[in-house]
Amino acid sequence: MADTQKLLIVDDEDSLRILVRSELEERGYEVDEADCGAAAIEKMLLINYSLIILDIRMPGMDGLEVLRNIRDRNLAKKVIMLTGVDELKIARDSLELGANDFLTKPYEIKTLLACIDRVLKE
Predict the structure, then answer these.
(1) DSSP element (H, E) containing 6
(2) DSSP labels for 61-98?
(3) Residue ranges per domain, the chain?
(4) How far apart are CA 5 and CA 2, in angstroms?
(5) Which residue in 19, 101, 18, 5 sits closest to 49, CA to CA?
(6) Model-level pTM?
(7) Which CATH architecture has domain 6-121?
(8) How far is the first Cα of the chain from the last one, in angstroms, to the nearest whole number?
(9) Sign of torsion, CA 118 28 94 42?
(10) Distances from the Cα of 57 to the Cαs of 2, 22, 35, 65, 81, in angstroms?
């Protein structure tokens, strides 16, 4: 069981956010959601999250732009990037911008949970 840590899931896919939120809440995390980059930044300005789970491919502001905002404004310390596109350049770009880890969709929930546990312990 996780300590009560606040996580933010940022993804434009409603079903994915609902599934991940459910799994994380079962494990004791406090979870918020945002369906776009702008909404995520608004939430991060108000709440100090332990970890951001951030999709790269979203309409409007994409995940890399959100990550730049996070780092430029020091909005969060830990970020895991998610994408449905298996591109090494995107992975490298997100890590260079300061992401703590990167997962390619589709992923198994146990893989995401292991990644979250590892990043939160860093």
Answers:
(1) strand 6-10
(2) S-HHHHHHHHHHHT--S-EEEEESS--HHHHHHHHHTT
(3) 6-121
(4) 7
(5) 5
(6) 0.92
(7) 3-Layer(aba) Sandwich (3.40)
(8) 17
(9) negative
(10) 28, 22, 11, 10, 10
